[in-house]
Amino acid sequence: MASDWISAFISAASGLSGVWLGSWLTNRREESREKTRLKTEAVYAAILVVSHLDRLIDNCLELAWDDGTIEGRPSGSDGYTHEATVDPPKFCPIELDVQWKCFPHDLMYMILNLPYKLEMLEKRVQESFEFSYDMPEYTDSFWTRRSGYAELGLEVSEIAFQLRRNAGLPINSTTRGGMSREEQLRTQKAEVEQARATYLKRVNETLAGKSCV
User: Fold this and answer.
1) Where exactly are the structural domains of the chain?
2) How many C-beta atoms surround the C-beta of residue 190 within 10 A?
3) Is 5 exposed, middle or buried (0-12, 13-18, 19+ CB in 10 A)?
4) In degrees rounded to 5, what are phi and psi of residue 79?
5) Residue 38: what pLDDT?
6) Are residues 184 and 176 in contact, defined by beta-carbon separation less than 8 angstroms?
7) Alpha helices of the chain — where are they, by DSSP H?
8) CA–CA separation, 141 vs 139, rounded Å?
9) How much is the average pLDDT of 99-128?
10) 43: confidence class by pLDDT, cuts 50, 70, 90
11) Count of alpha carbons within 13 Å of 114, Cβ hemisphere only?
12) What is the pTM of this model?
């Protein structure tokens, strides 16, 4: 009698264990498939977003070079006014068909915040041109524009680098004439800052000379 009860208990326990083990294995397989799916989506999203970030970096580099001239001559139709030859870039990440939740929160914030940064920079540039004191060259305004976009281009480049690293994508850097985009952006930013510093020094020296007369 006791042996029959023990046999029945063992049989029931074995059945329950088998059901539990089968359920556990099924859940593990589903979890594995879900992880694979999410990883695939994350890589696809990173590739798509990086391609748009690369275009934005290229645009920022073009703006960092733009001093309102063409082949060294004023670009304005009147022959002496300096006018922008490169339009400000547009970047609308929210329109991209990607699952943003695939990205780490900090990266997602930095990417989705770029349109606001572009808007604020362009507003600052427009105000600089509107209240310019050195027409028709607009030298200081172009310095503001070139330096601002060089700095933003470097920020976008860092975001793209982090996105590539997070997704396991190749960490490459586009080069032009033997220099990477980042090197060119840093060079343009440094040149503008040096030119502005030299100009301000000359102005201060002139004002100091006049005050001594």
Assistant:
1) 46-211
2) 12
3) exposed
4) 90, -5
5) 56
6) yes
7) 2-65, 105-112, 114-130, 139-167, 181-211
8) 5
9) 94
10) confident
11) 29
12) 0.80
